[in-house]
Design a protein that fits this description.
49% of the residues lie in helices and 16% in strands. The protein is of the alpha+beta class.
Length: 254
């Protein structure tokens, strides 16, 4: 073997080791480190919360409805997710192996997330089946947030509690009838008086008999990586975010 061949072989060996290390990092360590490049591509985020009874009205056979888990949360808005925008910001830096695994199992077979006891407890109070849904939300959306899982879910849980205080009464008062986008936005404007009304939208799904059912509330917020610096005040964050459109103008509430 010539000296040049030895040099090439040595370089190839080093490169192979680097590739293996990179793959190992993406599969095992990714959920422990903020993805800063992703945060640079994100211009805002959506906090998405779900009215539990509406979800089970349109998906009665879903396991969390059949088991009663969602009912145990009470008649309240529950955390669906905190989604960096634009919508295509998903699976940032996640290996294809993990993406395929997550899509097949929705978080049940993913590397565990490092969350503090306080954050884990807070998350359980606002998210149904958080043990499985939280990994799904992290790998799909959280990896594009620019923060750690602990920050990501801590902020999401805290903001969901604020949304509940403001909007739960609006949904409860509409039970058995209709709720409108205007009523939701009026309540936001009344509470915060900061021009945040246009930063809230509704998402409807088709229920029994083809009627529209309001399932989600979507709130436009700044980038996740910027939110803690602003004190996590829902009103202030809404005022600093871009307006959001809403295809759903009104629908029923079970």
């Amino acid at each position: 073997m010539q000296r040049g061949d030895v040099t090439v072989l040595s370089i190839s060996t080093v490169l192979a080791a680097v590739v293996i290390a990179a793959v190992t990092y993406s599969v095992i360590v990714l959920d422990r480190s903020p993805n800063t490049s992703a945060s640079e591509r994100t211009d805002s985020s959506w906090l998405v919360v779900t009215w539990g009874p509406s979800f089970c009205a349109v998906e009665p056979s879903n396991s969390i409805c059949e088991s009663g888990e969602i009912g145990d949360m009470g008649r309240t808005l529950i955390l669906h997710g905190l989604w960096p925008q634009p919508p295509e910001n998903q699976y940032c830096g996640v290996s294809k192996t993990l993406v395929d695994r997550e899509r097949n199992h929705r978080g049940s077979d993913m590397p565990p997330l490092e969350l503090s006891d306080d954050v884990r407890t807070s998350l359980q109070s606002v998210m149904v089946n958080s043990a499985n849904l939280a990994p799904h939300e992290w790998y799909t959306h959280g990896t594009c947030s620019g923060v750690t899982p602990n920050e990501y879910f801590g902020d999401a849980a805290a903001l969901t509690e604020q949304v509940r205080q403001v909007l739960d009464p609006v949904f409860k008062s509409a039970e058995g009838g209709q709720i409108t986008l205007g009523a939701v936005r009026d309540r936001i404007e009344e509470e915060f008086d900061a021009g945040g009304a246009e930063h809230v939208g509704l998402a409807c799904r088709t229920g029994t008999g083809g009627a529209a059912v309001v399932v989600d509330v979507r709130l436009s917020l700044p980038r996740v990586v910027d939110m803690s610096a602003d004190g996590l005040s829902l009103g202030d964050l809404l005022a600093k975010s871009p307006p959001i459109s809403s295809d759903c103008q009104q629908g029923s509430i079970p």
